[in-house]
């Protein structure tokens, strides 16, 4: 047996007489006391330490998009005397972009040849400069809302190209400092994926597409240039037509940066949808990625989700899941750079006037109150989309 230690240093520690302090036993006690002192010191330090807070969870739509590294989220805007509506689209926690709903279209900006009326469009540019938000400018070449002198003009190829150049130079050039993006060509396709019989296609053929994009780039070289259309989400033939457009513009050296999916969707079978409903999250994601595979960005540019009215809590819950599917599909797609709601409120929605018996399509209701379930699921999709 080892000799009991005579130099045990812990004078205030009572030792049971039965415990013989060998060298080995004393070493064990030394270790235990050292460990105890270390733990007590650590606890004391922890008591004085300030905990490092976690980053706050984004509470707004734009805060969430920004946290996920995306470029924008916005809404279509028509300026009117409604301060409550203005406070919604002006809330920078939710939105950092606007799209002029009508005031940049050809019929309002050049109603007679070379007679430009731009006071309405100027208001959006001024608003963006004042408030530091982006503008998704809409649009330069579209078969609809054209003035008669364009829609029914008897042009040669050279004449129509000159008309397009003058219009695009004037409009895109005037706002080149503020238009983050342009919908250069809007809705060039029929439902079956063939080209619309517009004046642009009749006179210039398919070449009107790269012509428009080249002119837009020359007039506003910093703007991202988009082709924009509806039903790309669910129609295979129309999606194929839009992919053909992208490839054709690229083959002609046209600078096309993105494709806009309008996403005027339905949450249940309606008369206007022919009984169809919005595609699911996986289908939406796959469709977006079939376009990004061509080397372009994608975005949801005119999002709303209509239903048969009146709305009910059960219908609104289904609608909320469609909004979730849209936002989560965007965030699951690396080059889905942003989303735009086509208006914030049912109060001013275009749906009831176009599709009688349908509506309740937006994230805020007719009283400009947030639909909490819809908003939350839309936000959830932004925060969670693409995460495993």
From TrEMBL:
Q: Which SMART domains match?
A: Glyco_10
A Pfam family annotated for this UniProt entry: Glyco_hydro_10
GH10 domain boundaries:
85-381
The pathway that the record names for this protein is: Glycan degradation; xylan degradation
Query: Which InterPro entries does the entry link to?
Result: GH, GH10, GH10_dom
Q: Which reaction does it catalyse?
A: Endohydrolysis of (1->4)-beta-D-xylosidic linkages in xylans
The record, for SUPFAM superfamilies, names: (Trans)glycosidases
Highest taxon, organism lineage:
Eukaryota
What Gene Ontology molecular function terms does this protein carry?
endo-1,4-beta-xylanase activity
Q: What is its EC number?
A: 3.2.1.8
Record localization: Secreted
Q: What class of enzyme is it?
A: hydrolase
**PROSITE patterns in alphabetical order:** GH10_2
UniProt keyword annotations, A-Z? Carbohydrate metabolism, Glycosidase, Hydrolase, Polysaccharide degradation, Secreted, Xylan degradation
Q: Which GO terms describe its biological process?
A: xylan catabolic process
> Would you tell me the Gene Ontology cellular component terms?
extracellular region
The UniProt entry, under PANTHER family, shows: ENDO-1,4-BETA-XYLANASE, GLYCOSYL HYDROLASE
UniProt family annotation: Belongs to the glycosyl hydrolase 10 (cellulase F) family.
Protein name (database record): Beta-xylanase
Which organism does this sequence originate in?
Zymoseptoria tritici (strain ST99CH_3D7)
